[in-house]
Amino acid sequence: MSKPKIVVTRHVYPEVLAHLAPHFEVTHNQADKPYSLEEWTALLSQQDGALTMGIEPVNEQVLSACPQLRICANLSVGYNNFDVPAMTRHKVVATNAPDVLTETTADFGFALMMATARRITEGEHYIRRGDWHQWKLDFFCGAEVHGTTLGIMGMGRIGQAIAKRGAHGFGMKVVYHNRSRLAPELEAACKASYVSKAELLQTADHVVLVVPYSKEAHHTIGAPELALMKPTATLVNIARGGIVDDAALAQALQQGQIAAAGLDVFEREPQVHPELLKCHNVVLTPHIASSTRATRLGMAMLAANNLIAFFKEGRVLTPLNPEVLA
Ligand code: DGY
Question: Which portions of the chain are predicted below pLDDT 50?
Fold first, then answer.
């Protein structure tokens, strides 16, 4: 019997391809060349399944050209590249990769918050430019982290893991805002208190965004929200581009409306808003919050195992539209 045909859309570790090879006829892209929409649609139309990176659109237009397609398995936890209702209509199973990246991503969110508050990259750039000639008392004075108030917007698994680092490791007071309030035992484990969005923005010294992207969450932080924040506060976005209005943020940073920002995600990745690039008080990283080899391998293997479980056993490990399997 012929094997199902799948595409692995970008470069992955060789052990992922070796894991898939016995089960599938695999088209891979180890050259890591991004596809145009036309190339992507044409390629996907030839496949039974796909291991996607969280960036390839799987929407009504693409799905209409892919009647053979049965499943798309994202290796990311974020799945804003999927139009899940459209996939459900087309009876295409959607999966993502939760849990495997939680602690690694929380480590990074915390590191980015620390780097932003303590002006670490600004100091490094100063040294590399050859500008360091003498020590000064108020050199790169940053914001305190320990004992301050940490505001987390989006209190899913990653938000909770960041809260624990802040509360237990750094003695921070943790406030959070989320679509729904956590169960009391989860709040207690994170030592976190639920507050309104406005209260969080007004009281937090460090705001960390971990909100999943949706149309409703677009520009969760724009000019009105930035205006509520303290002039000494920092803002960190490890959620998704589009959660923050990057132009409004650049303006707030330039005008000293907030002290600094740390950004791992951007509205038009891989392009960064030109005004943000001009700001000295922003730490920029290229969407790497989950990027350790162990974690990225774990994410890819989970996506691979979703594909294998689906074609072998008619089930998946982390479904986004379980009704398609019912
Ligand atoms: C995720 O898993 O959503 C990360 O942002 C990597 O895309």
Answer: none
